[in-house]
Design a protein that fits this description.
426 residues; alpha/beta; Rossmann fold; 5-stranded parallel beta sheet; 5-stranded antiparallel beta sheet; 14 strands; globular
Length: 426
């Protein structure tokens, strides 16, 4: 039985992988996010963890600031697609999103083997969600459910059975996206593939889908963010710095050369690379998954190109760190964001990330606590004019604080001045 499951799983992953690559290639020419969009990030408790949603908001805020995208997360623990369908008019529509991402299925699958009834309940609700948003003119990135961990979810055979279920729900999502002409993000197959590679490198105790097997830590959350961002803002170009050892230098949009002398260049940047922190081997650090996920290669390219280098190699110093590269490597371009994980943007990035975290934490309060309480007041006392006026005032105050927290995120995004030194080596 286990052999059959593994064989079926392998075929499914291969087929989905081909489809994923084809979809990503298509998305590379057609980014979903446009300037001024309003992005809603929707899902269950995995979304309410406010980690992949934070990574997504971090990215669109700092790595693509020219888009000026407004974000909100609407995660709700224990939720299913039918559950969100029942609350979307109250909780989502007032934000007037122009783009939404959905991530359901983990709870919809019932944590057991797939049955046709499970699939029907799930996809019927997902179709209604997509169609309702489509009628408003919004674009929905239909996300498949993620995975459960091979080792930390119950027994390994249980994980295999449930991942089969989640894979089937993901296939239904893929077809729904096709039927409704919406983009699709394949979280499930990507997470499963990266999980296998990471465990092969770090051991079975290294979890990708969380210590409980369901709720990913920072490593799995970055995989989820990558899957959505690859569809929302494909391309991954943060910027290019061209240093001519004769003394000239140039920078792409979002960056400005302040001075250049020999191999020393001072730059001011409005666009940040995505930054990482923590233990390189711990699942609690997104940094640990980077060797097994093409995030820096696909989404985080801050390229240094060096021309007219006379020596065979050169030492590049950026911030407090230095690395040596060959002349050929520098002529082709090296990705500073990948080579220097601790870099001059790290502190500035963390400040914006902290502001995003505060805003998203407030959104959970705004929607789950105050929103539900006020809805109950209106339901029971809405015919009282004094109560109605009070509720209106409270809603205005709550919305005002949300706007202030969103403004604080933008205020934290300040230009970063940094220096690159290229020194020839013998």
């Amino acid at each position: 039985m286990n052999k059959m499951l593994r064989c079926t799983r392998l075929v499914a992953v291969l087929v989905a992988g081909i489809a994923l690559l084809a979809g990503l290639a298509l998305g590379a020419d057609r980014p979903v996010l446009k300037k001024g969009d309003r992005l809603a990030i929707i899902g269950d408790s995995i979304t309410e963890q406010k980690v992949y949603s934070r990574y997504m908001e971090d990215y669109v805020t700092m790595c693509t600031p020219e888009l000026d995208v407004w974000c909100v997360q609407l995660g709700w623990g224990g939720e299913t697609a039918p559950g969100f369908l029942g609350r979307m008019n109250q909780d989502l529509m007032p934000f007037k999103p122009t783009v939404a991402t959905t991530c359901y299925g983990m709870n919809d699958g019932g944590y057991r083997a797939y049955e046709d009834g499970i699939g029907k309940r799930y996809i019927d609700a997902m179709r209604d969600i997509v169609e309702r948003l489509k009628k408003t003119g919004a674009t929905v990135v239909v996300g498949s459910p993620g995975c459960v961990d091979m080792n930390t979810f119950r027994k390994p055979e249980d994980a295999e059975v449930y991942n089969q279920n989640l894979g089937k729900l993901g296939d239904l999502d893929r077809q729904l996206a096709k039927d409704t002409a919406m983009p699709f993000a394949d979280l499930h197959n990507l997470m499963y593939d990266v999980m296998k590679r990471a465990k092969a490198a770090y051991g079975e105790k290294y979890h990708v889908c969380g210590g409980d097997g369901v709720h990913p830590a920072a490593d799995g959350q970055l995989i989820m963010a990558y899957a959505f961002l690859k569809v929302l803002v494909p391309g991954g170009e943060i910027g290019t710095f061209t240093v001519d050892m004769a003394g000239q230098a140039a920078a792409s949009d979002g960056h400005k050369v302040l001075s250049a002398k020999g191999g020393t260049v001072q730059i001011e940047s409005r666009r940040y690379p995505f930054c990482f922190y923590g233990d390189e081997k711990s699942p609690d650090s997104a940094k640990s998954i980077l060797p097994h996920l093409a995030f820096n290669q696909d989404m985080n390219r801050l390229t240094l190109v060096v021309k007219n280098l006379k020596s065979a190699k050169a030492k590049v110093t950026w911030g407090a760190a230095s690395k040596t590269f060959t002349r050929d490597e520098l002529a082709k371009g090296v990705n500073l964001a990948a080579e220097f994980l601790d870099n001059p943007f790290s502190d500035a990035f963390r400040k914006v990330d902290d502001a995003v975290a505060k805003k998203q934490a407030y959104e959970t309060f705004l929607i789950k606590e105050s929103g539900r309480a006020l809805a109950g007041v209106e339901r029971n006392l809405g015919d009282d004019a004094e109560v109605a006026a009070a509720v209106k005032t409270i809603k205005s105050k709550l919305g005002g604080k949300h706007e202030a927290l969103a403004a604080a995120v933008r205020a934290a995004l300040v230009p970063v001045k940094h220096t690159i030194v290229v020194a020839e080596e013998k």
